[in-house]
Amino acid sequence: MSNNILSVKNLEKTYANGVQALKGVSFDVKKGEFLVIIGLSGSGKSTLLRCLNRLHEPTGGEILFHGKNTAHIKGSEVRNLRSKIAMIFQHFNLVDRHTVMSNVMMGSLHSTGTFQSLLGLFSDKAKEQALKYLKLVGIADKANYRASQLSGGQKQRVAIARALAQHPEVLLADEPVASLDPATCHTVMDYLEKVNKELGITIVCNLHFLSLVRRYATRVIALKGGQVIYDGEPKNIDNAWFEKIYGEGAKEVHIN
Amino acid sequence: MLWGNSMKENVKARFFDVTSIGYIFMMLIVAIVQPGEDVLLDLGQNSLVALLCFVVALVLVVMLEKAKVKTLGRLIFEPAHKKAQGQKKGMLQSFWGAQLSVFFLITLIASLIVTEFSFYELSSQKGFEGAKRIFSAMFTPNLSILPQGVLAIVQTIFMAFLATAIAVPVSFILSFLCASNIMNKSAMGVIVYTVLRIIMNVTRSIEPLIWAIIFSVWVGIGPFAGMLALMIHTVASLTKQYSEQIECVEDGPVEGIQSTGANALQVIWFAIVPQIVLPFISFTIFRWDINVRMATIIGLVGGGGIGTMLMNYQGQALWHEVGTLGLLIIAVVWAMDVASAQIREALK
Predict the structure, then answer these.
(1) Same domain for B175 and B72?
(2) Sheet holding A20-30, edge to edge
(3) Residue in chain A lying closest to B259 (CA)
(4) How far is A186 from chain B (nearest CA, A)?
(5) Domain regions of chain A by residue span
(6) What residue of B is the nearest CA neighbor of A119?
(7) Is the model's pLDDT at B42 over the cut of 80?
(8) Is residue B17 domain-resident?
(9) pLDDT tens digit string along B332-342?
(10) Whether B159 and B108 share a structural domain
(11) What are the tens digits of pLDDT across the range A124-157?
(12) Which contiguous run of DSSP H or E holds residue B244?
């Protein structure tokens, strides 16, 4: 039990417009694993991740982070939680008008005082760290470019560096490669793997392509209609499971 | 209850339909009865007729609802998920199409009558001669008053600048409090938002000219009153423009910064401000531009600057002098327009 960093119990989320995105989802995340969540668009994957770092507030159930229920915490507790559970997004969500360096520094907003941060007075340590993480994702040479000048893959690497600048314990990745070309996909996924293996950061990642799942995941959860229908090792997902997850007649698309 | 659980939209749609259909009834009655002025001035009786129209309209709207006819109000206010389902009918075969056409046509005809629109007056020989005389005088300027004119327009530009400069920081702060996407998080926020919106709308709907009259009584006739009038109007206008810009920022960066554990102020500063800074700058420059033009109008009530000078000459029908000042204003406004366009382009 003690090596469960996150534990989701019977989680429910119903949006104000009546859409029920999660209908009682339960699973555990072990420290250090690379957990991949698969499922059709609209199956609740994104909602699930956004409940984990409390961008959304769940309408039922529990989320235990280090054994403490975070489902309904408020204010500074939420910000503390978010600083420990970083997130990267399909559309990168960088601030386009700021430089790459500045974007990475935004990862240390939580640990910087409000007044200092508004004046842009980040500590030397924060700057050093930002540069270190930019090097880690191999993009330090672009530090003074504006984020808008980068390609999609480069933006996602900056987003990873920003997430790392938070010194997180968990990194959530919401379809991090869905808007990238196949070659770039692997570059970004390789960096996520590096983060996972070298820094020991637990990763929870939404993905579409099963070939990527088999290559990178240490464990897989499949969501369908807001419920968990598979929880196990990636290698056990055969054609029968595939059809169950994605619907009859679905064809697997391979990217290499 | 009739169209699902979206009560608020339902009320809005019904209100819209009752108002628009009641209005159509009223206009039809006016067209049929052709009341004289004494009848039109009988407010009590007319209110009664209007009320009657709205009651009949309400009955009609409820009947239409029961018959599931898609009225214009339904079309506009129904929630997106309802919009997605159901077949689409073209504008010509539908009830809402007819409602819109009748509404527009009646209003158009009424406007033509009310504004006394007349091609006859527009093409009258005598009127045209008069206009020609003034125009030809204005295009032969009297250059001897140019030095005074330059001095006056410099005063006007400074007046407009000060009004804009004081208004910008005030509007900047107010705009966040008037942006629904920032304020809708809590009940307190919604109250502040609503109250400020009302104040701003009232302030903005009072023309700077009226503000100038108020302030010229308050602080005395002169450029100070004019500047205050411009400033008040600028605060209200810029707040509206700024807050609308804030309301349409992309959510992505906001979510991105929120996910780092940043607090609300940091999210605003790092995720929202970078997205709005360019439009803010162009609105601001454009507003200064508008204020220079408006400052000339403010002169009408003694707001100082070139406006006052213009009004003096205009009152004496000295069209050559008016033309001189007109050219001066055109030159300045044109120069500011070009400059602001260039600056906005370069900042992109």
Answers:
(1) no
(2) A20-30, A4-14, A60-65, A68-69
(3) A82
(4) 23
(5) 4-93+167-246
(6) B269
(7) yes
(8) yes
(9) 888 888 887 88
(10) no
(11) 888 888 888 898 888 888 888 888 888 888 999 9
(12) helix B223-247
Q: Tell me how close the Cα of B163 comes to any Cα of chain A, in angstroms.
A: 27
CATH class, A4-93+167-246 region: alpha beta
ipTM of predicted complex: 0.88
Handedness of CA B201, B205, B206, B207 (dihedral sign): positive
Chain B residues closer than 8 Å to A87 by CB: 259
Number of structural domains in chain B:
2
Residues B154 and B111 in one domain: no
What is the distance in angstroms between the Cα of B188 and the nearest Cα belonging to chain A? 16
Shortest Cα distance from A210 to chain B (angstroms)?
A: 26
Q: Per-residue confidence at B320, pLDDT binned at 50, 70, 90?
A: confident
Closest Cβ opposite residue A107 in set B255, B260, B265: B260
Report the chain B residue with the minimal C-alpha distance to residue A94.
B253
Domain range spanning residue B233? 142-347
Residues B86 and B146 in one domain: no
> What are the structure tokens assigned to B24, written together?
């159509």
B197 and B266 both lie in a single domain: yes
Neighbours of B304 (CB within 10 A): 23
Q: Is the pLDDT of residue A203 over 90?
A: yes
Interchain proximity A117–B266, CB inside 8 Å: yes
B263 touches chain A (CB under 8 A): yes
Q: Let me know: does A207 contact A36? Beta carbons within 8 Å.
A: yes
Between B146-177 and B319-347, two packed helices, what is the crossing angle to 10 degrees?
40
Q: What is the CATH number of the domain that holds B177?
A: 1.10.3720.10
**Is the same domain home to B106 and B157?**
no
Give every CB contact of residue B325 below 8 A, 6+ residues apart in sequence.
Answer: B145, B149, B152, B153, B306, B309, B310, B313
